[in-house]
Amino acid sequence: MDTMSLLMQGFSVALTPESIMFAVIGAILGTLIGALPGLGPANGVAILIPLAFSLGLSPTSSLILLTSVYAGAMYGGRISSILLNIPGDEPAMMTCLDGYPMALKGKAAEALAISAIASFIGSFIATIGLVILAPILAKFALRFGPSEYFALFALAFATLGGITGKNQFKTLMAAAIGLMIATVGIDISTGVQRYTFNTLELFEGVDFIIAIVGLFAISELLFFLERHAGDGLKQVAINKLKLSPKDIVKVLPASFRGAVLGFIAGVLPGAGASLGSFISYTLEKRTSDKGEFGKGDPRGVAAPEAGNNGAASGALVPMLTLGVPGSGTTAVLLAMLISLNISPGPMLFQQNADLVWGVIAAMFVGNLVLLLLNIPMVGIFVKLLSIPPKYLMPIVTLIASVGIYSVSHSALDLYFMVGFGVAGYIFRKVDIPLVPIILGMLLGPEMEKSLRHALVLSDGDWGVLLNSGLSIGLWVVAILGLILPIIVGPIVRAKMARSKDAAKEA
Amino acid sequence: MLNNMSLKSVLISGAAALTIAGQAYAYEPARSAECIAPANPGGGWDFTCRSVGKVLVDQKYIKGNVQTVNMSGAGGGVAFAHTVSKRAKDDALIVAASTATTTRLAQGQFPGMNSGQVKWVGTLGADYGVIAVGKDSKYTSLTQIMDALKQDTSAVKFAGGSASGGWDHLKVLIAAQKSNVSNLPKIRYLAYSGGSEALVQVVGGHVDAFTGDISEVKGFMESGDLRVLAVMSEQRLPAPFNTIPTAMEQGIDAVAPNWRGFYVPGKASGDSYNWWVKTIDELYSTQEWKDIMAKNGLMPFHKTGAEFTQFVKNQTLDIQLLSKDIGLIK
Questions:
Q1: How many residue pairs from chains A and B have C-beta atoms closer than 8 A?
Q2: Residues in domain DUF112 (chain A) (predicted)?
Q3: Across A185-328, where does the E strand assignment appear?
Q4: Cα separation of A288 and A308, whole Å?
Q5: Same fold, B33-126+259-326 and B128-250
Q6: Best of A189, A199, A203 to mutate (most B CBs within 10 Å, chain B)
Q7: Rounded to an integer, what is the distance from CA B4 to the centroid of its chain?
C-alpha cells in the first residue's frame, strides 16, 4: 500500500508537462537510434548524456529522458530487424527469425504492429515487476556494510562475462583497463595522488562520462568514416496495416510469457536482454502447438520482443537498488547518476524517493507514448532510416562535444574524449568489449574502498569478508555467476546461432 | 588555456567584454560580473555562486547579470590556478570558496600555490561540523567518545564524506587534539565519497561514529536513527538544532565551521576589493539572503575584509600543523 502511494506521488512528477515532454523526446530519439543498424541502446544513451548535462536538466528530467531513450531504443531495434533482417543490436536478433519472413510475405506492417504491442506488454509487465521487487530489495539497504559491498562488487565483476562475454579473456582485459584508468586521481583512503603527474586536471581522476562518450559515440563516428557509408539505407516499402483484434489476442499469451521470462533474465546481474529474448523465443517455440516458427509466425515476433523489453526494465532493478548494473546500458545510466551526485544503491529508495518513483512512473508513461508513436508513425521512422549517415553523424559528434565542453569548460576534456574515441575504435576492432571498461572505472574505486574499510573495521582480519550470511550468499552467487556462463554460455550461443541459420535457410 | 579563455569571453557573455573595457577607466561597480564555481553544477560552490549571483542582481548591486561558470578540477585547484595566472587583474570576477579550499591550500594540494595569491573577500554563512552516532550506540556524549579514544585510539571508528586528511577527517582530529588524545595518526577514519554514504554506514551499525556537517544529518536526526553528540560551533544553533550541545559545553574547545565565501584575483584593484567587501557585508544583512540561508540550512558566520583574510591565514596554519601531526604532509 505504501508502494502504491509512492507510485502515485511518482505519477505526479511524471505527468508534469515537462516530464511528458522529455519522455516524448526520449522515446522518439530512442526509437530512431535503435532503428539505425549498429547503434544500440548503450550508444544512444551515451550520445545523449552530454546533451542532458549541457541543457542543465534536473536529475529527474535527465533520467526520464535517458530511460525513455533506453526504452525507445529497445523498441526501435526491431524495425531494422523486421524490414532489413539487420538487428539494431544483439537482443533484437531473435526478432529477425520470424519478423523478416513476415515482411517477405508482405506482412511487414503487421509484424511491426505486433512487435510494438509485444514490446509494450513486455515493458509494462516488467515495470510492474520493478515496482514490486525494487522496494523489497531496497529494504536490505542498511544491512550492507563494507564486507557486503565488497562481495557485491566482486559479484558484479564475476558476472561481467555474462554481459558481454564471447571471449572471457578479452572481457577480463577490458575490465583491467577500466580498473587502471580508475586509479588515476586522489586515493580517498590515504589522501595520496596516484598517476596524476602534478597535472591539476587529473587530480580528480578521469571523468567516466568523457570516457563513455568517447568510447561509444566517437568510436561510432570513426566506424562510419571507415565504412564511407554515404548513402542511407534503401527505402523499404510497407504494406497497409490489416490487423484484426483476433490477431492481437492470438499473440497475447506469447507476449505475457515473454515479458515474465525477460524480466527474470534482466534482474539477474549479467544475463541481460539477449538472454531474455532468446529464452522467450525458444520457450514459445517449444510450448506452442505446431505453428510456423521461423517462417513468419506472429508469436515468434511477439515473444522475443516482449522478452527483450522486459529484460531492459528488469535490468534496472539491480542498478537502482544495488548500484550494480545488469546490462551495458544500465552501466551507462549508472555513470550518469553518479555524475549527478546521486548514489545509486540500497539507499536510493530512501534518500531520493521522489526521483526513483518519478522515473518509474515516467517509464509507464514513456511506454504508452512509445506504443502510441509506434503504431501510426512507424512509416516516419522507416523514412528516417534512409537519412544518410553523413548528415547524422556530424550532429551526433556536435551534440557530444558541446555537452562535454559545457560541463567543465576544459579543452583538455575534449582531447580526452577524442583519445577515448580512438581507443574505443581500436578496442572494437580487436573485439575487446567496451562495457567492462566502463564497469571497471565505475566499480573499481568502490570495490577498493570497501575492501579497505572492511579491513580497517576488523583491524586487519580478512575473515571479516565472510562475517555475515548476506556476504556469504553474495559470494556464492558470485562464484556461480563466474562459472555458469563458462559452461552454459557456449551452449546458448551455439543454439542462438543455429536457430538463426535455420531461419536463414528457411 | 589562453585560447579557451578568449573563446569563453567571446562566447559566454558579451557583457564580460564590456567589463574588461570598463577596467581601463577609474573603478565603478561592474555592470556585469562572473562567478567561478570550481566544481560541476549541483555542488556547494555552484550553489554559492548561483544564489549570491541572484541576490546581487535582485538587490541591484550589479546592474547587468552575474554569470556562473563551472570550472571543476583538483577540488578547486584548476579554478585557483586559472584565477592566479590568467585573471589576476580582473575586477569583475569572484570565485566561490569554502573550508575545502583552505584545507587543500594548507596541505599543498594546489602545487606551487598559496592563500596569499588571491584576495579574500568574505563569508556568507557556514555549515558547522557535527559528531554523531547511531541510535543504539553506547555513547551519549562527545566526552565519552574522547575518553574511549584516550584508552585505545582504535576503539571508535569514524566515517565521513571527505578523503583521508580532508575536512571531515580533520574535524575528528581537532576534537581529539583539544581533548588531549595522544597518537592522532592512529585514529581510524573511513573515507566515503559523500556524507550520505558515510551516514548510512553509521545508521546501519557498521561504523561507530559519523563526522560531517549539520546540513547532512537533518533527515536521520528527525527520523530518530541518529544521535548527534555535539555540534562544533561557538554557540548553540537555531531550532531545530538547538537541542544539540556544542563541543565547548562538553569541555572540548573545538570549533569547525565549513564556511561559504569568496576570493577575488590577487591583483584586483583596491577599489574593487573594497566594493566587494562592502557589498558582501550589505548582502549578508538583506532579508533575501536570510531567507536563502534558512532554506538551505546555512548557519550564521560572517567575516569580511581584513578579519576574513586573517581568519583564512589562521585556519590554513592550523590545518597545516594538524596535517603535519598526523603525518599527512611533511
A1: 110
A2: 20-439
A3: 185-187, 192-194
A4: 19
A5: yes
A6: A203
A7: 28
- Closest C-alpha among A188, A161, A159 to residue B165: A188
Kindly provide the residue ranges of all beta strands, DSSP E only, lying in A87-220, ordered along the sequence: 185-187, 192-194
Is the pLDDT at A117 greater than 60? The verdict is yes
Closest Cβ opposite residue A408 in set B71, B188, B191: B71
B-chain CB neighbours of A145 within 8 Å are 201, 204-207
Domain coordinates of chain B in residue numbers? 33-126+259-326, 128-250
Lowest mean pLDDT among A122-131, A291-300, A401-410, B243-252: A401-410
Are B74 and A407 within 8 A, CB to CB?
no
Phi, then psi, of B262 in degrees rounded to 5:
-140, 155
Distance CA B79, CA B96 (A): 9
The half-sphere exposure of A334 on its side-chain side, counting CA atoms within 13 A, is 26
pLDDT of residue B25: 40
The yes-or-no verdict on residue A417 having pLDDT over 50 is: yes
pLDDT of residue B13: 43
> % helix / strand / coil in chain A, to the nearest 5?
75, 0, 20
For residues B158 and B209, the answer to whether their CB atoms sit within 8 Å is: yes
Nearest chain A CA: its distance from B260 CA (Å) = 19
CA distance A425 to A221: 9
Pick A300 or A286 by higher pLDDT.
A300
Q: Note whether B71 contacts A409, CB cutoff 8 Å.
A: yes
Nearest Cα of chain B lies from the Cα of A35 at a distance, in angstroms, of 33
CB < 8 Å to B77, chain A:
200, 203
Q: Has residue A255 got a pLDDT over 70?
A: yes
Query: Hey, what CATH class is B33-126+259-326 in?
Result: alpha beta
What DSSP designation does A316 have?
A: H
CA dist A248 and A242 (Å) reads: 11
Nearest-CA neighbor of A367 among A31, A4, A13?
A31
By Cβ distance, the residue of B81, B193, B328 closest to A188 is B193
CA distance A15 to A363: 11
Residue contact B75–A143, C-beta within 8 A? no
| Interface touch A201/B154, C-beta < 8 Å | no
What is the C-alpha separation between B125 and B119, in angstroms, rounded? 18
Query: Which residues of chain B register pLDDT less than 70?
Result: 1-28, 41-42
Torsion region of A140: left, alpha or beta (phi above 0 gives left; psi -120 to 50 gives alpha): alpha
| CA–CA separation, A361 and A355 (whole Å) | 10
pLDDT band at A83 (very low <50, low <70, confident <90, very high): confident
For residues B114 and B108, give the distance between their C-alpha atoms in angstroms, rounded to a whole number. Answer: 8
Cβ contacts of A357 within 8 Å, gap of 6 or more: A6, A7, A9, A10, A13
CATH 3.40.50.460 applies to domain B128-250? no
Of the partner residues B42, B74, B162, the one whose CB lies closest to the CB of residue A340? B42
Q: Is the pLDDT of residue A401 over 80?
A: yes
How many CB atoms sit inside 10 A of residue A19's CB? 24
Of B40, B110, B200, the CB nearest to A142: B200
